[in-house]
Structure formats: C-alpha cells, structure tokens
Amino acid sequence: MAELRYTACDVGLGLRFMVNLKHGFTRFAISLAIAASCGVSAALAVVDTQGHPPMHSWLPTGQPKMAVLCIHGLGLHSGSYEDLAQRWIKDGVAVYAIDARGFGQWYKRGEPKLDFDATIKDIGDVSDLIAKEHPGVPLLVMGESMGGALALQAASKYQDKYAGLICSVPARDRFGDLNVDLKLGLKVLTKGFGERFNAGDAVIKYGTIKHGNAATPEENARIEAHRMKWSNDPLGRKQYSVGELLVFSNLVNKNVAAAQLLKSMPVLFLQGGHDSLIRPSGTWDIWEYLQTPYKDKVISEASEHLILENGQFGENDLKFLNDWIKNKALAPKVAVNATSEPLKVDGAESAPSVIKSASNLTYWIELKRNGKTFRCNNKTQFLSGDEIRFHVRAGVDGYAYILMQQGSGGARAMLFPEQRTGTNNVIVGGKDCAIPTMTYLKFDENPGVEKVSLIFSKKPMNVNNVLRDPHTVTAYVSQDRTGAKDLVPTRMQLSWDDTAPVLMPKTEPDAMLASHSSLVKVACAEDTVALDIALEHK
Q1: In this predicted structure, what is the pLDDT of residue 39?
Q2: Same domain for 341 and 435?
C-alpha cells in the first residue's frame, strides 16, 4: 500500500512564485526546498486567482498523453490526490484537482458555504482551461464519494468536454450513523439550521474500518495512520450545519437523473470491498441507470471507502485504472452487457484472506408498516399493504435471487433481479446486503400463505433455471410460530433467533444491522442454497 502523504503547501507558506498570465490564471512554482520539506514534487500547484477555484496541478515533462480533472470527497480537498498524481505524471498524465466550494482553501480563508451548483460550473470552466492548455489532449473527469457525485453530474452537463468518467462510491446509501434524520430534526428544532456540529469524525470513523474481516496488526497500524492523517489534515473540514448537510443530501439525490443523461460516454464505477460507509448496492443502483453501453463497474477487494485519495490505492488498482483508460475510455468503443457482474481487483500486494465457505449465510426481513420500519423474520404475520425486503449476509461473494413460488393469487414469478426491482443482485461477502435493491415487495389485498424462494449462489445463474441446478440444496422455512422444527435436509443446518418484530430506530441503524434480532442462520457448504420461505399474509 502506498505511503500516505498530504500536501500542506499553499499561499500561506510564503512560497517563492513566478507569475504566468497565460489563459488567465496564475501559476505558483513551488520551490524545490519547500517541496522537498512537505513531500511534494516540483510539479506546478495552481491556486485561486482571477475568479477560478483553488486547485492543484501536477504536470509531466513535455506534452501529456491525456489529462484528468479530479474532484475530492466530503471534508477533503484538492491536495488529497497528491499520491495518485505523482504516479500518473510519470506515465505522461497531466493531473488537475480543484477544491469544491466550502472545502480546502475556500474553507480555510473563511468561505465555508457549500455551493455545489457553483462547483459544477467551476468544473466546466476549469475543463475549458485545461483544454486550452493542452489542445487535442483527451480529458477525463474523476471523483470520489462527494466528488463522485459532482463528477457524475458535471459529466452529464458537459458531455462534450470529456473522454470518460471515473466515479468512485457516489451513492448516499450508507452504513453507520450518518443517516440520522431524527437527530438532525431535533437540532433544527432546538438550535436552527445554522448550528454547526462535527460530522467529519463519523465520516473518518466509518471510512477507515475493516468491516467483517479480522485485520492483521499491520493492517490495523496502516488504518490508524490513515485515520490520524485524515483527522489532522490542516485543510480538512469536519464542521457542518444541518442546512449544509441538507444541501449535500440534495446533491446526491440528483445522481440518478444525471446517470440517465449519459448515453455514450465511457464510465467506470468503483467500490471498495471493505467500505463501511457506502453500501455497494447504492453504488450499483446508480450504475444501473446509466444509459451508455460503455460502462463498467469494479470492486477493489482490499480497499475501504477511499480508493483514489490519500494514497489508499494499491498497485493493482492503479494498473486496472490505467488499463481501463487505455482500453475503454481512449480506445474504440465496445459495448458491455449492462447486467454484467462487477469486476474485482485485488487492490493491495497482500490482500486479506477470502472465506471459502458460505456457511454463515443469514437473513432477516425489513418490514415497513404504517410509516414505521421493523426488523423481523417470517414468523411475523404480514398484513395487506406491508412492504418488505430481505437483508442477506454471506461468508463469500455471490448472487441472490427471489422467486415467487406460490402466491396467494397463484402466481409464480421472478421477483428479483428484475427491471422494476433492480437488476444488480451481487452479494458482497461479509456485508449486509438489502434486496430487492430498487424497491420493496408489497403484499396485495389477497390473504393467504406466500411462499418465496431466497436463493444464494456463488456463481451467476440463469434466472429461468435458478431451481433446476442439481447442486442446489433446498430447505423449507416455515411460518409456524409454535416452536415446531422447520424441515431441514441433512446437508444443511438452520437455526432461529425467534423474537417478535423489533422497531428499527432511525438514530441507530448500525446497531440494528449488527443485532441478531430475528436472524435466521443457515449452515451449508454447498455452492447454491435455496430457502423456501413461507410468509403468512392475513
């Protein structure tokens, strides 16, 4: 893993500079002595002058073969791409990065207002400057987390400016305690929209956790070093008001509409395999809405939330990025299957071990009833109008399917994956994955016993033949609440944490996900497991 470094160089350090008014902005050439002292090369750092946003550039010797404009994540700044840029300039790539409005130099000099519309305009303006600086050189736009949302929306607005888009974890579907609507509402009632509080520590906490895997001492040391560097970054931002977080929420709410506008641009979506901040299903859901046939998605198996920034990329991550740019963004376009599974990249030289058995397959049911959300299992009596989805956790990566075997109306149909419920059925090993991904399953007005098959397979299956695989092991999971044992085949063990439905408090979603309440546990070493689950509909 590359060593973590931060750019501390800015105008306030008293750098020696030269002025060049070409294309209307000033370049400050960092002196070699200062550059050496703060770990930055002698590449040019571009700072805010004449109305342009604060930014950095790292330029190779001679004419670059391509250029990349980078947008940072929440609480970070343009210098967060220093390590990646230093690697890319050796390959002849010109790298630029700007500070989003309200972050980095904007925040440091007392301009904390989050203005994402203005930031998207900044991205377009800087893209024009880069095109003038490097005529004929293809330009890509790239962003991570908040920057992924900004890059996605800028790409949809300025499609003629870019040869491709690289978008890392742009979603809002989060693990952890960041979706705290009740807490935010109480702060508004008691202190108003302008009251500031520390949300940055939660981002850092969940952005630097190995989730579901035992980290080695070396990994723990690296994670702690990363956390401390991120937390102590002098240009980082942690304080936000409720109003500012609502502005951020409004930004990510626009991702789907932006994705639908991209019809021909090459696009790559990235997700960290150990990301404990953003759910993979959220990232893949946005990917599903992309209209371009030239789209790919990839899981960096050894990465946490950050992949591109703060030196968190591995050698294989960088190789994959370079190959994708060369073979997809800059090469003649070849369409890919829109439902293709995510590629996987071992992002480090020593990847964490992979669990080979699905023996800890578990599920529980998320129930929405009368405006409240409960955690339960199929021993609950369901009512007409109830909405449910399954939360599945497996010991290995795989694929999940939901098949209606016997409905109260006699229907038999594939419920998921399906166009209306979501076509991405990837299950990431060790993660709580909610399915269907795009909607809930709703009980109609016809009472009876609904029997659905929840199927997990290590390999993708033909949706028309999901139960014809001879290697499938099937168990019947009864809705009986009397305590009678469920029917279980000899190669499978099934156990219950048989409790009444538990209300899921909005302020503690992470604790509820970690809870064992209503959990159904399956032990089976087979590659394909099917649970015929009976749901009593009153």
Answers
A1: 31
A2: no
| Greater model confidence, 189 or 331 | 331
Residue 223, in any domain of the structure: no
- The conformation of residue 278, written as its DSSP 8-state character, comes to B
pLDDT at 353: 27
Q: Same domain for 335 and 447?
A: no
DSSP annotation string for 313-379? --HHHHHHHHHHIIIIISSPP----TTPPPEEE--SSSPPP-----TTEEEEEEEEETTEEEEE-TT
In the block, which residue shows the tokens 């390959």? 91
For residue 454, the surrounding DSSP H or E stretch is: strand 448-457
Residue pair 232/101 in contact (Cβ under 8 Å)? The answer is no
3-state secondary structure (DSSP) of residue 513: helix
Domain termination residue (choose one: 317, 345, 373): 345
- Domain containing 450: what range? 361-537
Task: Check residue 341 and give its pLDDT.
Answer: 59
pLDDT at 406: 60
| CA 3/CA 311 separation, integer angstroms | 6
- Which residues neighbour 394 within 8 Å (Cβ) at sequence distance 6 or greater? 358, 360, 361, 427, 429, 430, 456
pLDDT in tens, 197-215: 666 566 666 656 654 344 5
Residue 241: pLDDT band by 50, 70, 90 thresholds? Answer: confident
Q: Give, for 105, the enclosing helix (H) or strand (E).
A: helix 105-108
Q: How far apart are CA 417 and CA 410, in angstroms?
A: 20
Residues 259 and 289: beta-carbon distance below 8 Å: yes
For residue 242, give the H/E element and its range: helix 242-253
Number of domains the chain contains: 2
Assess whether 161 and 304 both reside in one domain.
yes
Statement to judge: residues 144 and 63 lie in one domain: yes
What is the model's pTM?
A: 0.59
Q: Confidence class of residue 156 from pLDDT cuts 50, 70 and 90?
A: very high
- 148 pLDDT band (50/70/90 cuts)? very high
CA atoms within 13 A on the CB side of 96: 28
If residue 46 lies in a helix (H) or strand (E), which one and from where to where? strand 45-46
60: left (phi over 0), alpha (psi -120 to 50) or beta: beta
